[in-house]
Design brief:
329 residues, mainly alpha, two-stranded antiparallel sheet, 13 helices, 2 strands, 66% helix
Length: 329
């Protein structure tokens, strides 16, 4: 019986995804492969995020699992914003303030970082953390299965943290089931994309869940649930810093710049396999998430240094970018 909340959303998402795919095809809601960060060569239908969210919401209702009202409002707003962004390509000038507003809704859950005593600074950093997770995660949604593998690794790691610290978060199991049900449609060659709507929703709810766990722990232990987000956020910072060094000096072009130089692109350029790239991303995020568990909270600087070391070794030896569209798998 305990596995029902995992398997039911799995099969529900598996079933709903083709329905939303058919809707996307009927509406002409397709991904444009001409953008700089894309690796596919033909238009792929969106609305995978809607399939994941619909399955998640239906499963919560069926199993009577609760979700804080303000969190539900926030993640729904992120889902709709991302879906509209897929459709209309909303300018960063409007998109970022809306993200800030939707992340601000989350602070009404009263979840805060336990290691920052200043109230208003804490709230601001909570909002910036969610925005950072949303945008960095979206930048990793560039290879078939990469966003699904990354979100699965983060959700799995947060579930382990909830077990270790005795925090009951049943909707995490439902979310894992939804992601697993989605992956068969998104592994290479992908028949459907989750789009910005899906990546916004998953990153928003996962970052908020990390905050929920962190807020109930001691200051040092409260750092642990943030480790799963290190690689996407670090990669976002490093890539944009490199683009700045290459001459993209103005803020607006820098924020809107696209290229094939994020970690998923560079891994793909090295291993030449899309599905292997997604698998490596899964293990990298699991490594960064779970390594701190074996260390005392007072020694967290050690796993943090090791995680940074692995990233910068990869940054040093991986190809600088993926040059050609498409890949053999």
């Amino acid at each position: 019986m305990k596995l029902v909340p995992l398997f039911f959303p799995f099969f529900l998402t598996l079933f709903l995804s083709p329905l939303f795919k058919a809707l996307a095809l009927k509406l002409g809601f397709l991904d444009d492969p001409s953008r700089g960060s894309k690796i596919h060569q033909r238009p792929i239908p969106y609305l995978g995020g809607m399939a994941i969210f619909s399955s998640f919401l239906l499963s919560l209702a069926i199993f009577n699992f609760t979700l804080p009202y303000y969190l539900l409002v926030s993640v729904l707003a992120f889902l709709l914003l991302g879906t509209l962004d897929d459709l209309l390509d909303i300018r960063a000038l409007y998109r970022l303030p809306l993200q800030f507003l939707f992340a601000l809704v989350t602070i009404y859950t009263a979840w805060r970082f336990p290691f920052i005593p200043i109230r208003y600074l804490n709230s601001l950093l909570v909002v910036l953390f969610i925005m950072g997770a949303v945008n960095s995660f979206n930048c990793w949604d560039v290879v078939d299965g990469s966003a699904g593998a990354t979100s699965l690794a983060i959700a799995f790691s947060l579930l382990i943290y909830s077990f270790i610290f005795g925090k009951d978060i049943p909707f995490l199991i439902v979310l894992i089931g939804c992601i697993l049900g989605w992956l068969p449609h998104n592994l290479h060659p992908a028949s459907m994309f989750m789009g910005d709507g899906g990546s916004y929703f998953l990153s928003a709810i996962l970052s908020a869940t990390a905050l929920q766990i962190s807020s109930q722990l001691s200051p040092l232990q409260g750092l642990l649930p943030l480790f799963p987000f290190i690689y996407p956020c670090l990669d976002f910072i490093v890539v944009h810093y490199k683009r700045y060094r290459r001459g993209v000096k103005k803020l607006k072009p820098l924020l809107t710049s696209t290229d094939k130089d994020h970690l998923p692109h560079r891994l793909l350029a090295k291993v030449k396999s899309v599905n292997l790239t997604s698998l490596l991303l899964f293990f990298l995020v699991c490594f960064s998430s779970l390594l701190p568990i074996i260390f005392s909270p007072h020694l967290l600087y050690i796993p943090f240094a090791l995680i940074l070391g692995v990233y910068f070794i990869l940054d040093r030896y991986l190809p600088p970018a993926l040059e050609n569209k498409g890949s053999n798998d």
